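Before the break, one more example. Copy the sequence into your notebook; we will annotate it together after we see the structure.
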Amino acid sequence: MISYVKTLIQKIKSSEKGQGMVEYALIIAFVAAIAIFALGDGGLGGAVSGAFENASTMIDEANNVAEGISGGN
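Here is what the structure looks like once it is written out:
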């Protein structure tokens, strides 16, 4: 009976299924953290939002200048 328990413990220790699942979970957590940072206000999402706001402001200003030149027609 003791030899059976020792053999069972050795099989559990040598099993790599749990290790593979932990590695996949760590990879998924890492990718999720990068995505949260990139799309959040402090990352790429904020930069893209700021660029679109600047472009919108420039278009509005150009439109106002064009209306002033054409007399508002």
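Residues 7 and 41 are 54 Å apart (CA to CA). Residues 44-70 form the longest helix (27 residues). Try to locate both features in your own notes.
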